[in-house]
């Protein structure tokens, strides 16, 4: 059978991750390549109790079809948290629940991107976003991100000259680099977006994972009409429940509802009710403090081991999130390192697929939220050995 697939599928990058994960599935491998939250930090008992309460009190409603916009009490909870944590004047009417924040990437692109539409994003940038956007055939234009901000001159030139329909960025503890924008950079991005009427699509998957617990102000705070934000409970409560959200101005929400209904009718009613019950009957802030403490310890340990064992590699020093980016000296190749790592039973993620406009051959991403302290110690020793071997 000759299957006639849509030509636009060819626009998507080859799914690099599947291939890499397939080869690193060996249980003896210590993997820093993935991006899972630590399994032991998922509050299974708490979520089980919340689910039991939902079945007892509102089981029929939670198992029935529901509305496209999402469970109102959960949207109110999220809006309330934006108000209390960040001082944003959010209302439930501006929030829609999605099937993870990954769905926002697809649906936002669906409502804004035609073939050849310019989309701006960070370089390196989140691979899942590059993949999601690619199916709508945009021209992706990137701006380098440093430890403190995107390259502001390039960001300004992009917004003024290329007029992207939106700029997609992760100001808090980016995937893959772990870097965060300074407050000054957030304000400048907001000013430029306002002047040029550019949407700033702010993926805030990691905002609650600042190690010091201090909220960083989103770009949307300084340019409300330009700000489309997404958030997620995947990194903080449970990725398997698939609860994310979009927070956007009314006209965007209206279009979002239309495409969302066509995509999958509505978010998972049971998951939403259980998530809401969990958040409102358990100590979510206490849980977050524990998650941040563990990730900070792991991150510091990984940075120290990189400094001690791999002295010619530079790396970012995240203040939150789940990832850091390491850079080898010029001439080195992260695919060669990846294969040398597999021989030593450790896995890292080559940086190349995070670079939408090419490059990144000397970089690799390290995840510090999955492995235990002991695994990090052993895994980094293996990585150092693999690095020496790959350089022979
Ligand atoms: C930056 C970023 N955005 C979005 C997602 C999607 O996560 P989810 O759909 O589970 O919310 C991820 C997952 O790793 C991510 O790293």
Automatic annotation (TrEMBL):
GO-annotated biological processes: alpha-amino acid metabolic process
Keywords: Aminotransferase, Pyridoxal phosphate, Transferase
Transferase is among the record's keywords: yes
Keyword Transferase part of the UniProt annotation: yes
Residues in Aminotransferase class I/classII large domain copies: 50-383
Cofactor(s) needed by this chain: pyridoxal 5'-phosphate
Pfam families, A to Z: Aminotran_1_2 (PF00155)
A GO molecular function held by the record: pyridoxal phosphate binding
Stored PANTHER family: AMINOTRANSFERASE, KYNURENINE_ALPHA-AMINOADIPATE AMINOTRANSFERASE, MITOCHONDRIAL
Protein name: PLP-dependent aminotransferase family protein
Taxonomic path: Archaea, Methanobacteriati, Methanobacteriota, Stenosarchaea group, Methanomicrobia
């Amino acid at each position: 059978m000759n299957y006639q697939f849509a030509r636009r599928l060819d626009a998507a990058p080859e799914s690099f991750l599947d291939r890499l994960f397939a080869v690193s599935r060996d249980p003896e491998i210590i993997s820093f390549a993935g991006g899972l939250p630590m399994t032991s930090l998922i509050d299974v008992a708490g979520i089980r109790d919340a689910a039991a309460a939902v079945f007892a009190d509102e089981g029929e409603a939670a198992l029935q079809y529901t509305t496209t916009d999402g469970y109102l009490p959960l949207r109110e909870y999220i809006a309330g948290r934006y108000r209390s944590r960040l001082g944003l004047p959010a209302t439930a009417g501006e929030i829609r629940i999605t099937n993870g924040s990954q769905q926002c990437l697809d649906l936002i692109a669906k409502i804004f991107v035609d073939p050849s539409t310019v989309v701006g994003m960070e370089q390196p940038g989140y691979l899942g976003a590059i993949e999601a956007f690619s199916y709508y055939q945009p021209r992706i234009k990137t701006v380098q991100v440093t430890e403190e901000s995107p390259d502001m001159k390039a960001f300004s030139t992009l917004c003024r000259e290329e007029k992207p329909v939106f700029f997609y960025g992760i100001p808090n503890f980016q995937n893959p680099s772990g870097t965060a924008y300074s407050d000054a950079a957030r304000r400048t991005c907001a000013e430029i977006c306002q002047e040029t009427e550019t949407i700033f699509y702010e993926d805030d998957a990691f905002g609650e994972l600042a190690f010091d617990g201090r909220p960083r102000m989103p770009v949307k705070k300084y340019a409300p009409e330009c700000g489309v934000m997404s958030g997620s409970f995947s990194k903080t409560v449970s990725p398997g429940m698939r609860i994310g959200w979009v927070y956007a101005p009314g006209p965007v929400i209206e279009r979002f509802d239309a495409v969302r209904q066509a995509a999958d009718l509505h978010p998972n009613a049971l998951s939403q009710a259980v998530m809401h019950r969990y958040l409102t009957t358990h100590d979510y802030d206490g849980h977050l403090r524990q998650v941040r403490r563990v990730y900070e310890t792991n991150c510091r340990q990984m940075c120290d081991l990189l400094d001690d064992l791999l002295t010619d590699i530079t790396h970012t020093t995240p203040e939150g999130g789940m990832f850091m980016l390491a850079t080898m000296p010029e001439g080195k190749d992260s695919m060669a390192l990846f294969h040398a790592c597999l021989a030593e039973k450790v896995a890292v993620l080559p940086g190349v697929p995070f670079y939408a406009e090419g490059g990144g051959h000397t970089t690799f991403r390290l995840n510090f939220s999955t492995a235990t302290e002991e695994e990090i110690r052993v895994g980094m020793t293996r990585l150092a050995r693999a690095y020496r071997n790959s350089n022979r």
